[in-house]
């Protein structure tokens, strides 16, 4: 019985090792394309937060910046789909993540509960902080860029 459980465990672990990185790449692609597309379509629940964050940027209105950020996110998602564009995906993601965490600094009254900065995030703050998981996933995927496709 132990031998059969060990064999099953090894098979499951081998499957997870073989398919895990591809699953991460596809998950990142889906998330970035989907959530990114909501922004230029005017359907993103994060639009107000993004507009408040980018209001100080020159040249375009906050709503235009939201659309550009959405297209940027779509580009991130698409580049995660192909092994040959993973380096570009990681670079685009790194720049995007800087902006993503910006509300924690410039809008603490929105991202943290009143009087509880920095330990009690609001739902908006939690939405931003969960991006640490996306960064970790990107690190795992980025570790495969030197492997043959």
Any key phrases for this structure?
single chain; 149 residues
Question: What can you see in these coordinates?
Answer:
The protein is mainly alpha-helical. The protein has one domain. It has helices at 2-38, 47-54, 62-80, 86-106, 108-111, 123-129, 131-142. Helix 1 packs antiparallel against helix 3, helix 1 packs across helix 7 (131-142) and helix 2 (47-54) packs across helix 4 (86-106). The termini are far apart. The relative contact order is 0.12.
Oligomer: single chain
Largest sheet: none
Unreliable residue runs: none
Mean pLDDT over the residues? 94
Instruction: Give the count of helical stretches.
Output: 7
Whole-number radius of gyration?
19 Å
Number of domains: 1
How many beta-strand elements?
Answer: 0
Question: How does the helix and strand content classify structurally?
Answer: mainly alpha
Q: What spatial form do the alpha-carbon principal axes imply?
A: globular
Strand content: under 5%
Give a topology summary.
Layout: H1 2-38, H2 47-54, H3 62-80, H4 86-106, H5 108-111, H6 123-129, H7 131-142
Helix pairs in contact: 1-3, 1-7, 2-3, 2-4, 3-4, 4-7
Summarize the structure.
This protein is an all-alpha fold and 149 residues long. It has helices at residues 2-38, 47-54, 62-80, 86-106, 108-111, 123-129, 131-142.
């Amino acid at each position: 019985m132990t031998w059969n459980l060990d064999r099953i465990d090894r098979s499951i672990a081998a499957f997870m090792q073989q398919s895990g990185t591809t699953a991460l790449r596809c998950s990142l692609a889906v998330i970035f394309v989907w959530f990114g597309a909501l922004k230029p379509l005017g359907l993103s629940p994060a639009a107000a937060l993004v507009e408040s964050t980018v209001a100080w940027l020159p040249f375009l209105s906050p709503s235009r910046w939201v659309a550009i950020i959405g297209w940027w996110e779509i580009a991130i998602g698409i580049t995660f789909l192909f092994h040959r564009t993973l380096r570009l995906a990681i670079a685009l993601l790194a720049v995007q993540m800087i902006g993503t965490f910006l509300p924690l600094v410039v809008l603490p009254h929105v991202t943290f509960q009143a009087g509880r900065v920095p330990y009690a995030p609001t739902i908006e703050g939690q939405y931003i902080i969960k991006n640490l998981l996306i960064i970790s996933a990107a690190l795992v995927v980025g570790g495969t860029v030197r492997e043959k496709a």
